[in-house]
Amino acid sequence: MQEIDTWLKLVDPAARSLLIGLAVWILISGIDDVFLDSVCFFTWLSRRMLSGQEDFTAEVEAAHKAPHKRIALFVPCWKEDAVIHQMVMNNVARIRYSSYDFFLGVYPNDPATETIARSLSARFANVHVAMCAGDGPTSKADCLNWIYQGMLAYEQESQCRFDAVVTHDAEDIIHPDALSWINYNVDVYDMVQVPVLPLATGPLEWTHGIYCDEFAEFQTKDMPGRQILGGFIPSNGVGTGYSRWAIERLAGEKGRLFEPECLTEDYENGLRLHFLGCPQLFMPIHRHNGEPMATREYFPQTRSAAVKQRTRWVTGIALQSWERHGWRGSIGTKYWLWRDRKGLVGNPVSMMTSLMLLYGAITWLNSRWSGGQWGIGELSASPAVLWLLGLTTTLQCIHLGVRIWCTARIYGWLLAMGAPVRALYGNYVNFHATLGAIKRYLMGRWKNEPLVWLKTEHTYPAIEAAAPAAGLLGEILVSAGRISATQLDWALETQPPGVRLGEHLIRCGMLSEMHLYQALSFQAKVTLGQLDPQRVRRNVARSLPAHVIDAWRVLPYQVAGGFLFLATPEIPAPELERQLEQHTRLRLRLQLVTASNFEALRRELL
Predict the structure, then answer these.
(1) By the 8 A CB rule, do 410 and 284 touch?
(2) Percent of the chain beyond pLDDT 70?
(3) In CA terms, which of 64, 241, 474, 581 is 20 to 30 Å from 257?
(4) Which residues of 548-581 are buried (b: 16+ CB within 10 A; e: fewer)?
(5) Given 3-state DSSP classes, what are the helix, strand and coil percentages for the chain, each rounded to the nearest 5?
(6) Do both 229 and 281 map to the same domain?
(7) In total, how many domains does the chain have?
(8) Helix (H, G, I), strand (E, B) or coil at 259
(9) CA separation for the pair 556, 165 (Å, rounded)
């Protein structure tokens, strides 16, 4: 016992000094957080008082009615053979948008991923493979640049032009209406960011729970706060839409859309666009048909994987951006740079605060047990120190309360109640990631070596868990909210003989043609598109005999890469491919189009 008392006499003075230093930092950071909390709260309150509600239905409907521009989805892949097939299959079935193409970036030394990517390309007319020039892994930015070059080559070969680019990862579940929202806003904003939220996991999944807490808070508070205060919007890496004009500005003379040496190319591009004067938009989180309008995915679920990913984030956001851009820009820009970089100090401080909390609890228990004096308790003799500690404790409680509310808003109160414990665990994870980032950055600069892609291993939910099973057409229309169960029952009872259910619903004014074909596309797992007759060459359209076109309701619209691309308003029959092979040596790729679009093609081209 005497040895313990002697040890405490040596340690307690240092602990008291450290505690005051930590409290000063927490005070500064806490005031910053409360300022942002207040701005976001009063903005939300004023909007509620003006409108009486927070309803985005009108905006969503307007987005659906806007003409569909052609959008390219960039998906960089390195060792993604376990997830990329499910990702494409699931999202092709979910997306309610008629004009988009996937570009999958693969490496020559990753044959497993390449094989799956090419099989998807052979199956879907709007899936393409972009090969990187060298072996991987390089950086994610470098892979995206090669995808960009692949898109340019495809445009030249197919005589088409994409109006916007959206970046995604191989584990993403894209919201069915996300592309419609980006399409609706990209004429006004050069960058449109869709919210990103982790998929829900069990309350005992502590590591993934950290991501749920942090993303719920960041997407609810920090990202809208940037929009309110006029700061730059950093890309979240996924669900980010760029206008074609912004893409060409970013690429510049070098033809590089993303900076290859940047480990967080998404953050870098958001900052670059801000400095170029390009307007940016963050779409606030809201629910539509009971689902948050956001890109969903699983984040790392082990401590080591989380540290690895966060090491890359800290390196790119805090260290590389500081090196590349310094503290330039307006006062508002500097403020957000401060918030993005204060983790370099804040993460170690948070860890030290947790350790001080543990040290204080242990020494207090020892003093109660031994009857001795509690060394840290001597700070209570100073009113100024008591005021400082009381204020910082209050600020910490406010911040924790905001995080709990943000988590509850997205995931419910059961998961939110674990946020205080996860915050302590998060301090440990972020502390290790920050130390790792500083070490990697300094070693890279010392050895003059590039910082390579610290890739995160991805998991993907089963397709059945992410989207309803493709069953009967009526069931799909009801599950998608296009018609009610009562309307379906009435339509089945009144359906005339020889008239298909979808046609009957359209005639009765209960369903639009586009909504019908979106359901048919989901049911048959066939890509739905909208073709402009002006972009189809007449000689290609007439490459099959007229009687074949009439009998099978197919119309050629493109020849590329050894494939004959065919538009059809019908779900392809099993014998269709065998019959058409008698008239062409090219491999066949089918795309579903609406009946009105098909008739327009026939009138213009035949």
Answers:
(1) no
(2) 87
(3) 64
(4) bbeebbbbbbbbebeebbbbbbbebeeebeeebe
(5) 60, 10, 30
(6) yes
(7) 3
(8) coil
(9) 27
